[in-house]
Structures
1.
Amino acid sequence: MSSDSADYNSSKDRDHGGPDGMEPDGVIESNWSEITDNFDDMNLKETLLRGIYAYGFEKPSAIQQRAIIPCIKGYDVIAQAQSGTGKTATFAISILQQLDIEQKETQALVLGSHQRAGSAGMLFLRS
């Protein structure tokens, strides 16, 4: 790494040591102002909604409240959150909402940065 490039893990400019825009106390930076605080108000397919509740979800997490709708609407979304906050479910719900189950060809491609996230995502998508 060159001396003039920023060190990703440096907390020089941040007191929490994490990435910009992700504060440990839950502060979320976004240019999307719509927050949907329950799955019923997201206008999801009935079968998908039943699956969400059957999987054990009761209320969308903070990342889900802010990212599912813009993903479904086709916006480019960069969603960054700590482990266990529901990022995999966020993109999975968004993808599943847009799929046409009558169409028998590839409609979505999910790329994972490492095997653990990929296998957890596939387990969720297959359920």
2.
Amino acid sequence: MCACVFNRTITRSSLDTLHPRVFSKNPNLRYINLSKNPMLKTLSWQVFEHLQHIELHMEEVVFSCGCEIRWLQLWQQRGKAGLSSQQLTCSTGDTEIRLLDMNVTNCGTNRHFRELLENRIKSNKVYLMQLYAPNPLD
């Protein structure tokens, strides 16, 4: 018998960040509602990378405009995860705009993605070094 979790709702909280692997132990998640979390300003695509056929709800979350949420803009443009019908917004200082209207440069450049990849490789190397390092007490 499966003790599977299919829905997760975290709304009206002081949530300000989600660890990239927060849902990794719940691969069967199909619905995630993060709406109305005023402290949540950015969100990594890595939170959702292992989930398939997911529906996200993020109404009334004002993200910080920038490359960190460019993936979310692309998902909304492509109609992924049920985002196309939502009014997602981001802010630059005091100005709030529709996420679809966000115009950021250098997010799609090879330099930006190379830096992201290098950072991920470095963090994986550190993890592997810790995992496979000889025990000094042996």
